[in-house]
Specification:
By secondary structure, the chain is mainly alpha-helical. The model is unreliable at 217-222 (pLDDT under 50). It contains eight helices and no strands. Helices cover 81% and strands 0% of the residues. Helix 2 packs parallel to helix 8 (161-213), helix 3 packs parallel to helix 8 and helix 6 (101-120) runs antiparallel to helix 8. The chain is rod-shaped, with a radius of gyration of 28 Å. The protein has a domain at 52-120 and 203-216. The longest helix has 53 residues, at 161-213.
């Protein structure tokens, strides 16, 4: 079977979106706008978190494993690390013999916080989207129901009142369906990103602990 041309597919999508906007009204328009905004954030976060793959963290662990036998090789591997945590670990190793270990711990924690901060940005907007989408959908449904009953009242005594009411109700319920359709995938996306951030935070904490205990030969599991 011959596939439809790209222009035709785009035309069908635009026609469907236009019909959805006409039926759902301004609430659906708002929902579609925030969904596009949320999709852009999610796409950005997916690319951003791809840099925090477990393999790159494993390389840092392997570098620290070499500290006892080959310090120069360890520092070289940290310097070549593709993520910004490598220089932080280098700093910790260079100052590991400082008499004030608590001050070094705080400084490493500060640098690690700055390293993780960009990965936590824009998480709140995604959270707001999956909170607000169903509420906005419900608001659209309520407004649509009000409009449907107002129309029924103004046409009292005319034929096909029940048909008009049914049509108004299903159009009103459309906004709730759109809101839920947006909220559900964004809930999953936010949960996945939050899990990745929690895992990255735990791994960074583990690496910093290794730096503080490396002089006593403590090794954590990679």
């Amino acid at each position: 079977m011959e596939e439809p041309p790209i222009n035709q597919i785009h035309g069908d999508i635009w026609t469907s979106a236009k019909a959805l906007l006409e039926l759902g009204g301004p609430v659906v328009a708002v929902l579609m706008i925030i969904s596009v905004f949320g999709f852009a954030i999610a796409l950005y976060k997916f690319f951003q978190f791809s840099s925090l793959s477990p393999g790159r963290f494993a390389t840092l662990h392997k570098a620290l494993d070499k500290w006892a036998t080959a310090p120069a090789k360890c520092m070289e591997m940290l310097e070549k690390s593709p993520i910004g945590l490598g220089p932080i670990l280098q700093f910790g190793l260079e100052h590991r013999n400082t008499p004030d270990t608590e001050e070094l711990r705080e400084e490493l924690g500060r640098r690690a916080t700055n390293f993780l901060y960009p990965y936590g940005r824009y998480m709140r907007p995604l959270e707001l989207i999956y909170y607000l989408a169903p509420v906005l959908g419900l608001l659209g449904t309520v407004l649509g129901m009000i409009e449907a009953f107002r129309g029924l009242e103004s046409s009292a005594g005319m034929d096909k009142d029940s048909t008009a009411l049914a049509g108004g109700i299903w159009e009103a319920l459309l906004t709730t369906a759109v809101g839920l359709s947006i909220a559900i995938p964004f809930t999953v996306v936010h949960a996945w990103l939050e899990t990745r951030l929690d895992n990255a935070t735990a791994t960074v904490s583990d690496l910093l602990t290794r730096i503080m205990t490396i002089n006593v030969g403590s090794k954590s599991q990679s």
